[in-house]
From TrEMBL:
Name of protein: SAM-dependent methyltransferase
This protein's UniProt keywords: Methyltransferase, Transferase
Organism field: Streptomyces sporangiiformans
Gene Ontology BP, a term: methylation
Keyword Nuclease: no
GO MF annotation, one: methyltransferase activity
Lineage of producing organism: Bacteria, Bacillati, Actinomycetota, Actinomycetes, Kitasatosporales
Keyword Transferase assigned: yes
Region Disordered: start-end pairs: 1-20
């Protein structure tokens, strides 16, 4: 009888290598964040973001989406409670002392929750964005719902609230690569591993938050990288592989991620993965 081979995640011997959160945040800002620029542009164009816009950005990270809104004349407030290293980079990009008080006037960055952004001197917001894509990690929609419940009282009635998520797996080439995270993190599946996006993820979040859906769209956001190393660093910076690293080790994740990327490497060494992201516009009551 042929014995059955069972793959096991053995405890990592010795101390685990420590991830440098500052380096990871820099990889996000310099490599990965720009992949979502088409999404930001499509939303801002559709909603006519301009000098009359008072934007509250939830989970603003290193601030590229805010910077693009500021370039259209908007006054922006960014809030983030999960990524202090990314928020530090947003300060470098956006705060008046870095760029001149006139160039970035009306910009606020808050480390904390939306209620920490409440300020009697600040007019109510007329646009709320949550551009961190949901529908790819277990439990991510629940966390977004909590943010929205805190943010909507700070906005005027009928304010558009923009939610973003991954498109159908069959339209996202990166889905095959992200499955590495699920495969390696199986013992921790309930604590943050990747899952395929579901069709109604965004609508369900909006409904639970008491928001009224008012349109949606899909945007092509290809992921392009200079080489395999650049792609690995960019994808690791998303945090989607953190559970896999905890379940195995960094070397194993790097190895399997690189192997999964090989089919997407072109003859010139670059890596190219077409993807589609979806956004939902909902309105505050």
């Amino acid at each position: 009888m042929t014995p059955t081979l069972v793959r096991q995640h053995r405890p990592h011997a010795g101390p685990r290598p420590q991830v440098d959160p500052c380096a990871r945040a820099r990889d996000w800002a310099e490599i990965q964040e720009r992949m979502l620029v088409p999404l930001y542009e499509a939303v801002y164009e559709r909603l006519d973001v301009s000098a009359s816009t008072r934007l509250l950005g939830l989970g603003c990270g290193s601030g590229l989406a805010l910077l693009m809104a500021v370039s259209r004349g908007a006054a922006v407030t960014g809030v983030d409670s999960c990524a202090p290293e990314r928020l530090a980079l947003a300060r470098e990009r956006l705060l008046p002392e870095a760029w001149g008080t006139r160039a970035r006037a009306g910009t606020r960055l808050v480390e904390g929750n939306p209620r920490d952004a409440a300020d009697a001197r600040t007019p109510a917001y007329n646009l709320v964005t949550a551009f961190e894509p949901i529908g790819c990690m277990a439990g991510d929609s629940e966390g977004l719902g909590e943010l929205l419940s805190e943010a909507t009282p700070l906005a005027t009635r009928g304010t558009p609230v923009v939610l973003a998520g991954w498109g159908p797996p069959e339209r996202c080439a990166t889905s095959s690569v992200l499955r590495v995270a699920t495969k390696l993190a199986d013992p921790l599946r309930s604590t943050g591993s990747w899952r395929p996006a579901l069709r109604d993820d965004l609508e369900e979040v909006a409904q639970r938050a008491g928001l009224r859906p008012d349109g949606s769209g899909r945007v092509a956001c290809p992921f392009g990288y200079a080489d395999l190393d650049n792609a690995v660093r960019g994808l690791l910076s998303t945090g989607l592989f953190d559970a896999a690293v905890r379940a195995t080790d960094q070397a194993q994740v790097d190895k399997e991620l690189t192997e999964a990327l090989h089919p997407h490497q072109r003859t010139d060494g670059t890596v190219w993965m077409p993807n589609v992201f979806r956004y939902l516009i909902a309105r505050t009551p």
